[in-house]
Predict the 3D structure of the following.
Amino acid sequence: MLGEGEVTMEEIFKNYHQVSSWPPIRKPDGIHKKKKHDTAELVKLNYQKLNQELVNSLIGRKSAKAIKKGELSKDELGTFLKWSVGIGSSNRRTYPSAGGLYTNQVFIVANEVDGITEGVYSYLPDEHALQHEKGAVQIKDALVQSDIDCNFCLIIAANIGNAASHYGERSYRFCLLEAGHMVQNIMLVANALHHAVAPIGGFKDSVVNEQLLPKHKSLSAFYLVPVGFSCKWNEAME
Ligand SMILES: Cc1cc2nc3c(=O)[nH]c(=O)nc-3n(C[C@H](O)[C@H](O)[C@H](O)COP(=O)(O)O)c2cc1C
């Protein structure tokens, strides 16, 4: 039982999520300067080669600053979701989750995907299927960047209340950590499929909550990932 004036953990996390929605961006001088080290004190390391396809995925991962639409089919979207945030072999997802709870949910804003009507969908990993949520929306309204025009955009969101009921004070961290795992997969799979992606942590929360996911008042969105094609013709070869 909560005493007078006390708030639930869910409220604390939701308040934090709301007040942290748009912090002023500061770049303190010197923060990005490379530190100079005394090489005599360093333990130099070697490394072995890995499977070349894995290496190519890792070194090719990048955040596109400009994205444009191109030809993208329903099957490509399915391939993308299956390997990035879906269920792989042995009935396990392709990313880890604290306690196997998979608190984070994936939504897709389909802008231009052949075979899929424009709109917002939730992705159901068990069925490897999309569930229609809402008709066409303007994902651009939720973005701050003007150079992003994607075929589809993933939204990663969690029910913080559900998470808190399992992991208490630690749950907010777990949602963010899980989102990081998901987005790294998304970026690696995008690279394997020669798509351009951008992991967007700085977006307009109110647009996502009110216009894109209005039926999901209990969800808090953490990450947007627009997916499309590179604006640089030779970027896939870089
Ligand atoms: C948590 C997080 C939030 C980010 N948010 C944004 C964002 O809002 N807008 C953006 O253009 N890039 C965003 N990025 C991408 C970074 O700018 C990018 O990772 C960084 O410049 C390094 O480039 P690389 O990913 O190509 O190596 C974000 C990255 C992370 C990890």
